[in-house]
Amino acid sequence: MTRHPPGGDSAAAGSLDLQLLARSFGDRHALRSPGGSVSYAELPRLVAAMAGWLGQQGVRQGDIVALTGTTADADRAALPLALLAATSLGAVAALPPARAPAARQAELLAALGPVRTAARAEMPISTEPCVPQLEAIPAPTQEELRRIAEGGDPSAPPPPLAPTLRASILFTSGSSGTPKAVVHTLGNHLASAAASAHRLPLTPQDSWLACLPLSHIGGLGILFRTLTAGACMELASAGRFTDPGRPEVAALRRCSHASLVDTQLRRLAALPMEVLSHRPRLLVGGSAVRRHLTEEVRQRGVPVHASYGSTEMCSQVATTDADAASSYAPDGATVAAEPLPGQVVRVADSGELLLRGPTLAAGYLHLGQLQPLTDNDGWYHSGDLGQLLTDGRLVVTGRSDAMFISGGENVQPEKIERVLLQHPAVLAACCVPRADEEFGARPVAFLQVEGGPLPPEGLERVAISHLTAFEMPAAYLPMPELGGGKPDRTALTRLAEREDR
Known about the structure:
By secondary structure, the chain is of the alpha/beta class.
């Protein structure tokens, strides 16, 4: 079965013309961060100044420029400026995971092939290719870029950026295997922004909170959504949302839209009602979204859009509207979302979701070679399992590589996790198999719990009421620190085996 929404497998969106944006939106903010703001009028000049500076560091067409920053950096606008500058030079920006240690970032970058520069969001930079520890020299801040531009820097304002240009290299999470380096074209990003606007409209009067790392497609995608709408990208510090006085909460109060993961939504729901009194649109993705949380926030009149997507598809594939009644499958437990325009979804006989569309990335980069990510018919095999309802909505049930067999029965860990997450004390859950002499394997649940014992009181009653006997966890173990990322199923499976000895 294939779902092919209006818009079809159309050509990539048009070019990105910073000069046209400057004329159209003038003094409106394009970027706003704790380190200051950048208007649309000055955006072309600052990008040109950054491009001139990168050129002085030896960056040329075809090079890879590694940008490695964290969400805590004060001048977070430097990273999107550097990405646009690299694209204007015909180079491509690689953004390794912001929260990964420097040694891990260097390992991922080394697997790409020759890398010209390595920079952080404050923009220290290295002129040596593939520097193991990313040793760096300082690069311009926003104010220094302004002085360069005002001082008559010879770099011309960037011409319209063609959709065929390679714009970014992002890394998959690697939660069930080795991370892959995904190459997106500018056209992929622009097509994704256009598709998103069909479900989450955006105007020049709007601003979108970016409190996710820009090294994640959920964070980086905001740049292109706001640029194409003439809106503002609000670059906040790490979105902990643990206290009404935190800076990201103050930033959210200024924003009409925000992108969050499930944990951030939970923390936001626990804050006073007035934090969300302006009713921003919340786009939530990255993992399973708990129904009781979305309902709690929606009862405040706040629209919540649950989304399914992937790095390979440049963010959203299917996103719910803000109507709670249409956001769930008939079982009431799984999210049902309509594919966005241009995103084509097919369910293989095995239940795997096959995807294609104008947002599909150019390929995987490894040791200088671009490797295809589709089969001979142009379909990307996502590894996700799901179904298409008769009304065209997509239901995602789990990962094909996560399923295991217990006593001859197929066990889908994500189903168990969705049930466990219904308990209000469970903050995170990951289920993995553990070898068992009688059944071959039994499910073991790793839990992050808010206070109290493990498992929390009443969790067994929740599980028994929704799970069959072979799906019931044989043990509950404490979840290791996630560091803001997804659980590593491979590592947790090894840990479960050790705990059984």
